[in-house]
Specification:
The protein is of the alpha+beta class. The protein folds into two domains: about 170 residues, Fructose-1,6-Bisphosphatase, subunit A, domain 1 (Fructose-1,6-Bisphosphatase, Chain A, domain 1, 2-Layer Sandwich), CATH 3.30.540.10; about 140 residues, D-Maltodextrin-Binding Protein, domain 2. It contains nine helices and 15 strands.
Length: about 350
């Protein structure tokens, strides 16, 4: 039996950057010619997440580009909006069992902020050798994410990484076409004082519990000021890729999303969260790790969720390992106190 050729990682990154640039431009064009009401119309309300009209503006570009790529090397595309399975073997004339790799994509992560022209969204892609249905986030060997800015913004960032080769980023001027490299420099701070640190609570569902855990973490790490001042700031960026990027560039010191644990905690008061992050939302965490950010599950282990559109993912991101060493024991104690571990 002949061996499967190795994936050309550099060529794959270049291909994904080009695909994402075309997707970004398609969304930008749609943003320019539509209203918030147009963009926020519900196109499909299936398992896992709601697909809005603005999401549909980019899906055809993704499928067209992936179909062309797959004629060179067959693969399985995994993304929301591909039906209930969320998987598509490409090229369309292919037969099962011949995929070279699995490509998991979030065509627009941060739809809600972008469709109202409030904040950038991100296009996310992670590529893993095909290991069958058990292929997981831990198998991803390269990732690319591209910013889709709001209409009044003309600069957009792109970040990428290949396993073991570090993380890189560049800034694109969408007016002139100029591109220049930018550093990815996570914070080296070992505390939270005068920095951003947040647990995700941007949707209804046991938000008071999340706030209690967050406040107790801050109290134990840096204390709660009694002089009328504040030292730790909260930023609810409704984009997992955006949250990771804020860690990569040094804007945030800690971010986390514990919604899956809250959804299972029937002993806790209040309604559970209605949805959680999925593997496609966090398929670029390799970039963060290659940049020096520590990304784990609630137990402190590497993320290993299967590459599906159905699994719920809980995650914690620390700007550096020393901050992880300080925060993780407190967080795990709090998670146990609330019955989340």
């Amino acid at each position: 039996m002949s061996s499967v050729p190795a994936i050309d990682s550099s060529a794959a990154v270049a291909r994904l950057k080009a695909i994402q640039a075309r997707m970004r431009d398609a969304v930008r064009n749609e943003m320019q010619r539509t209203t918030a009401g147009d963009r926020s119309a519900i196109a499909y309300d299936g398992h896992g997440d709601t697909i809005y009209a603005i999401d549909r503006s980019v899906e055809h570009v993704l499928l067209e580009e992936c179909e062309a790529w797959a004629r060179e090397q067959p693969f399985i595309l995994i993304a929301g909006g591909l039906g209930e399975s969320g998987e598509m073997l490409l090229p369309s004339a292919n037969i099962a069992g011949t995929a070279r790799f699995r490509l998991i994509v979030d065509p627009l992560d941060g739809t809600r902020g972008l469709m109202y022209d409030k904040r950038s969204a991100w296009i996310l892609s992670g590529l893993a050798p095909d290991r069958g249905p058990e292929t997981s986030l831990a198998d991803i060997v390269l990732a690319v994410q591209t910013e889709v800015p709001i209409t009044k913004q003309y600069l957009a960032d792109v970040a990428w990484a290949i396993l073991g080769r570090g993380a890189y980023a560049e800034r694109h001027n969408l007016l002139t076409g100029e591109v220049h490299p930018i550093p990815l420099t996570p914070s080296r701070s070992t505390n939270l004082a005068h920095g951003f640190a947040s647990l995700s609570k941007f949707f209804p569902g046991r938000k008071p519990i999340v706030a209690e855990i967050e406040e107790e973490l801050i109290r134990q790490v840096d204390g709660i000021p009694t002089d009328g001042k504040v030292r730790v700031f909260d930023d609810q960026y409704i984009s997992t890729g955006g949250q990771l990027y804020e860690l990569m560039v040094g804007h945030d010191r800690f971010n986390g999303d514990i919604r899956p644990a809250l959804m299972k905690a029937e002993h806790l008061p209040g309604d559970p969260p209605g949805m959680a992050a999925h593997p496609y939302d966090i398929c670029t965490e390799l970039i963060a790790r290659e940049a020096g950010v520590v990304v784990t599950d609630l137990d402190g282990h590497r993320l290993s969720n299967r590459l599906t559109v159905h699994d719920d993912v809980a995650w914690l991101g620390y700007a550096n390992d020393k901050l992880q060493a300080r925060l993780q024991p407190i967080l795990q104690m709090l998670f146990r106190t609330y019955g989340l571990l």
